[in-house]
Amino acid sequence: MAIAQNLFRQIAIGKQAALGTLALTNAGQLYNFRPDTSGGLSKESFESDSIRRDQQFSNPRHGLRSGAFSLSQELQLGGHTELWEGALGADFDTTPATTGSSTDMALDAAARTITRTSGSFITDGFKVGDIVRATGYTSAVNNGTNLRLTGVTALVLTYANDAWLPTMVTEAAGDTVTIAVPGGVCQVPSTGHTSDYYTIDDFHDDINQQSTVRDARVSSVSVDIAPGAHATVTFEFLGTDASLDGTAQYFVGPTAASNGALLAGPEGRLRYDGADSAVMTSIQFTIDRGAEVKAVVGANVSPDVFTSGVRVSGSLSALFDGGSVLVNFDEETEASLYIYLFADSTRGSEFLLFKLPNVKINSADKSTDGQALQVSGDFSAGKYVGASTVIEGTTILINDSTVTA
């Protein structure tokens, strides 16, 4: 008798056109997964409480059905695009901030600024914390380099003195230059939210067994970043139902799994409360949609998967340097948290950026970590509603530099 092995398991997911309509059989994409990936059919049950003379009970009855699936992955570039969209309730914008072609872009290498005399970087959509790239300068080193913005005004962009920067060259305005945020950006919108449903195909081709989760919505996403390991992400799905009796893969010729670079803590940057952190030892956060199904009389499946708004919470730990975590906890100060993960250490590396513009520390404790002291705490992230025009008015934003239209 053949026993199923993970090596022969194929997981494909496709976005549905609507609730109640399975994804087209040619619309699936394969996903890489970690061994703890699991899922299938879930049922509620209920028991009799009748008192009988034989002092025994009948078996429970089965009630509400639902489909549940937990997709555990290593975080990678371009590996989760459609799933991020389901979590945040918005599609990726593949034309984010850009100046368009301009001859009014002077670069000062010593001051680490790009200056214009007309137009507005703010109107063009640039925000603090963005990574931008230039094209069109005479000096090749000025083009295609990741410039991490620490300041944005109408006429001046200021970028960080990051280790990957080459010896930049000062250039006066005159070249036809474009400054742009690369890739695609997905953020929780204030209006026009999307409601994405997915069909999940879990196929074991060594034993010809297949299960399907239908009408699945992203219930939560958990991201875990540590200094000595690949970053991980787990997508939790909840669907209206699941079937377990398939013998063939649902999706025909699904798109191959992403081969984007795996991301890890050592090739990363953390910026909290306007300052880069060199002492953070771990960070985890969860995007929670609070998905649930509801039982109704006359059916054993829910009419829909119901979700709440986007709630973000997490935890962090850092070597204790007397920094702002404890002070902000004490004073209930809200601050930004930007998490950058890079494919490599080159000047134009592809990257994944998480921006949480409005984080509040809700607990903070000091403890011993070997010979060092560390501070750890829990945080929440809410929508930024402040007055700044260079901070996004959202709870969380994701910029994947490899996402294209």
Structure description:
With 405 residues, this protein is mainly beta. It folds into two domains: 280 residues, no CATH class; 77 residues. It has two helices and 23 strands. The chain has a 17-stranded antiparallel beta sheet that branches. A six-stranded antiparallel beta sheet has the order 5-6-9-8-7-10, with no helix packed on it.
Number of domains: 2
SS field, number of helical segments: 2
Beta-strand share of residues: 35-45%
Rg calculated over all Cα atoms: 24 Å
* pLDDT < 50 stretches: none
How many angstroms does the end-to-end distance come to?
47 Å
Principal-axis shape equals globular
Structural class: mainly beta
Q: Total number of β-strand segments?
A: 23
Instruction: Please state the average pLDDT score.
Output: 96
Largest sheet: 17 strands, antiparallel
User: Percent of residues in helical segments?
Assistant: under 10%
Q: Secondary-structure element order, as H and E?
A: EEEEHEEEEEEEEEEEEEEEHEEEE
